[in-house]
Specification:
The complex is a heterodimer of chains A (313) and B (533).
Chain A lengths: L1 H28 L4 H6 L5 H10 L6 H13 L13 H36 L4 H15 L2 H15 L15 H6 L2 H26 L3 H8 L4 H38 L5 H11 L2 H29 L6
Helix pairs in contact in A: 1-13, 5-6, 5-9, 5-11, 5-13, 6-9, 7-9, 7-11, 9-11, 11-12, 11-13, 12-13
Chain B lengths: L2 H16 L15 E5 L15 H10 L1 E2 L1 E3 L5 E3 L2 E6 L5 E6 L13 H11 L4 H9 E6 L4 E6 L6 H6 L7 E2 L2 H6 L15 E3 L9 E6 L23 E5 L4 H9 L5 E2 L7 H5 L4 E5 L5 E7 L9 H10 L2 H9 L6 E2 L26 H10 L6 E7 L3 H17 L2 E7 L1 H7 L13 E7 L27 H11 L4 H18 L3 E6 L2 E5 L2 E2 L13 E2 L1
Parallel strand pairs in B: 1-12, 1-13, 17-18, 17-19
Antiparallel strand pairs in B: 2-9, 3-4, 5-6, 6-8, 7-8, 10-11, 11-12, 13-21, 14-21, 15-19, 15-20, 16-20, 22-23
Helix pairs in contact in B: 9-11, 10-12, 14-15
The chains are: A mainly alpha (313), B alpha+beta (533).
Chain lengths: 313, 533
Amino acid sequence: MFAYVVRRVLATIPVMAIVALFVFSLLYIAPGDPAAVIAGDQATPDDVERIRASLGLDRPYLVRFGAWVWDIMRGDLGVSIFTNLPVSTMIRQRIEPTLSLMVVTLILAVSIAVPMGVVAAWRQGTWIDRAVMAFAVLGFSVPVFVVGYVLAYFFALEWDLLPVQGYTPFARGFWPWLENLILPAIALGSVYIALIARITRATMLEVLQQDYIRTARAKGLNQGGILFLHALKNAAVPIITVIGIGIALLIGGAVVTESVFAIPGLGRLTVDAILRRDYPVIQGVVLLFSFVYVLVNLAIDLAYTLFDPRIRY
Amino acid sequence: MDRRSLLKAGLAAGTVAASGGIAAPAFSQGNARTLRFVPQSNLANFDPIWGTQYVVRNASAMVWDTLYGVNDQLVPQPQMVEGETVSADGLTWTFKLRAGLRFHDGEPVRAKDVVASITRWMPRDPMGQMVKAIQKELVAVDDTTFRWVLGSPYPKLKYALGKTNTPICFIMPERIATKFDSFTQITEYVGSGPMKFVKEAWVPGASAVFQKFDQYVPRSEPASWLAGGKRMLVDRVEWVVMPDPATAAAALQNGEVDWWENPISDLVPLMRRNRNIAVDIADPLGNIGSFRMNHLHKPFNSKKVRQAVLAAMSQEDYMRAIVGTDDALWKALPGFFTPGTPLYTEAGGDILKGDRNMDRAKRLLAEGGYNNEPVICIVAQDQPITKAQGDITADLLKRMGMNVDFVATDWGTTGQRRAMKNAPESGGWGMFHTWHAGADCVNPAAYNALRGTGQQAWFGWPESKGVEDGVTEWFSAPNVAAEKAAMDKINAAAIDDVVYAPTGFFLSYTAWRRNVSGIAKGPLPFFWGVGKA
């Protein structure tokens, strides 16, 4: 097991290298000019050219790529073209809100979706099953920003229960922190809940047909024990896989959610950087996301062993 | 106790216990000494010389002070200076700084700081470049006096030092102004204005915080735009960046923010219905919409083809696409200068007045030799104003019988592509859309977009001798009548040569909670004089 983990961690290095090369090359050939954005609308072409030179954007591809890789190898992600702040500082400023949003969404989604899927499978064909499936279709169909606006309208404007926007760091208290995350987490989690609920239902339907479930029932085990201890554990592997895949979904959805609820997270940082062509920030954030995704995949692979003793590394 | 407080109290008991008793400080939004403001866009950098975006200027006006400041009559008034003397030949200007000026690091403002700041500002500013070209000497005479010797008279010098156009000539310490040239961003934000920038609290893309500078000594005159006494009535100004207008509207209605700089017109009726919110025109100088044609290449290298577009275009179409059905927000503009200002002129603007004449347009197209060349029309989709204008233009050109190649892109790409002088088929372009702040268009002083200097001109590279002669006359005009005559000449020549196509004049709103007072109309949000109950 330990050797497997080490191998997988080492395998992230070539993956990150390929991602780095791909991202840098893509940004190099993409149209757009940060110097023009910095110079402003009144700037002359000469001004733009001077700013481009001062930022080193007029240097050849290989020189720029080499310098960037050299900096990364020394642990330096570079400095934002626009803010003049280190990219690592900007990521550090933004990582807590995004992490908080994803964790709350994940907890919320799993704690709602899994029981929903289990109950829907247990009550297959009843109104409960149909209601869960209708919710799943709705969750898939309604865009995150629409859910966000509707939630903000009712819970913030009409009923004055929760704030419309913003983020309060955890260090300032649990409730202020959570208060700002409830609506965004529900909005972001709606698709995720729908996805997990559907997969849970489908997998549970298959497991509930197995002989050992019939045996458990014949032995007189209670329904809750059968569903959540026996059936769900055996249905866990595909559900965990979907939860893991869904983290990528969350990263994408966070961009929209953070904009709608004005949360200063990595999603907004990424979009802002792309619109301004702030290359060092884009490169730094994409590297971070890909690293996180590789680690999440590793964690999922390891989690399989907890639920299915037949899986060994 | 309102519902949210009740909910908070109920949940706090359980959650505080669950979290080990972590304390939750009071929200600053409840503090009457803190003003929470939603700016027009993200404060992505904070160097008013290096980054010339309006949002940077607006924040900078709190932190850095100016030697002069224009008032709401567009007249420069002394701000950091006590006064100036000018030699009889108009070539030697001697300025004296007023007493009590101090930087946020505690150091007094000295003449050498002013000299260094002006030197850093000049290369980035159109008026600054003109002065630099005729400058003989700029020196600090002593700690409070500096002298500027010119090779030829420059009557608009005070205006150059006090205008609202970017880049404004802000004064910073010599050690910063000399360490970073005009094309390198500063890393220390030390000014002598009424507010200090809290660098540690700055999260680009999310928030910026400004704290009252207790040692600032305001002038005794009442505040008027950049002039007069800049008295801060709040201790702290927090900028909250909100990319989504609907969120900003909800936050304003909910009292989570106090002032929203530029609500989109679609949401204004909603806010007008809220009795806690006031809505008014933000800036009477408004904006001028425009699209620019590439004078270097076919088909717009033909003056008649450009005139054909002017003859056919309907400014009403453009303005309604930008501001919607609110007729209070726009007016037709048969010219290039800001309506309602002292030197405004419509001279030579007949082609933009009255019913649109498609027959005349088609005739001009034929006379101009248009031969179905594709018009590469660049339209930035991420800017609502450019997108709205681009859609109208594409439709207009098609109705004229032109071959339109509509390039939907973003503003960053537009910024890069518009700088390319190549032929359209080799990566160049035919036209792009933008707009100009009305404050930049009150006269030719800083109006780069109107210049007709050919290859040295702004994107599109128009060449117009008439415009350039008029600009020269304006800068040397001895009185208002002469200035007006020069403006007439510029406007007529710019229309005739179609330096660019003005799509109309439009205004925008600003909105604030009614417990906020003292918000002034102007080209930028002025925070002095703004109080909160």
